[in-house]
Amino acid sequence: MHLTIVLRQVLMLLTILALTYLAAGVGALGSMNAPVFYQQLQLPDWAPPAWLFGPVWTTLYTLMAIAAWLVWRSSKHARSALWLYFGQLVVNALWSWLFFGWYLGALAFANILLLLVLIIATALSFWRYNKLAGALLVPYLLWVSFAAVLNFSIWQLNPGVL
To answer: What is the pLDDT of residue 1?
Structure first.
């Protein structure tokens, strides 16, 4: 019986990681030209180098998936929190398409503002079920807050492109 519980826990962790990385992959498809496009844009002086985004996002997606798994483990009644989590993943993936795929700076900015609201709602919801899970979303919230300011700045600096 104990082995069955452990196996179920591991399988769910792998499933949540896979679904989270799937969302990351969908976003990455929209960002295929991001390294070249990013270099062509007029950037604010404080913009991070393009190479930094991959490692940061990989770390954040891993923390996010672990947080969702902790919530799943914490309660059978956490379904709405997990739906919120997966909903914000969809909005997250859409941002890459809006900004890098379709060059829609204003819509990308609106999308990232919605994403911030959803991250806050998800973190608060996770916090109710598992404090560590809620805390694991704080780096994500901070990075997306920074990304929102960067999105706005780049959009304003490149009106003919975005």
So the answer is: 59
The length of the chain, given as a count of residues? 162
Are the beta carbons of 85 and 68 closer than 8 angstroms?
yes
The half-sphere exposure of 3 on its side-chain side, counting CA atoms within 13 A, is 0
- Written as six digits, the tokens of 20 are 């989270």
Side chain identity at 33, as an amino acid letter? N
* Tens-place pLDDT, residues 3-12: 898 999 999 9
Alpha carbon 130 to chain centroid distance?
Answer: 19
Q: Which two tokens stand for residue 139?
A: 């780096």
Q: Which of 49, 18, 34 is nearest to 99 (CA)?
A: 34
Residue 102 carries which DSSP code? S
Cα–Cα distance measured from residue 29 to residue 35, given in angstroms and rounded to the nearest whole number: 12
CATH 1.20.1260.100 is right for the domain spanning 2-157 = yes
Query: Phi and psi (nearest 5°) for 98?
Result: -65, -45
d(CA 161, CA 159) in angstroms, rounded, equals: 6
Inter-residue contact 48 to 118 (CB < 8 Å) = no
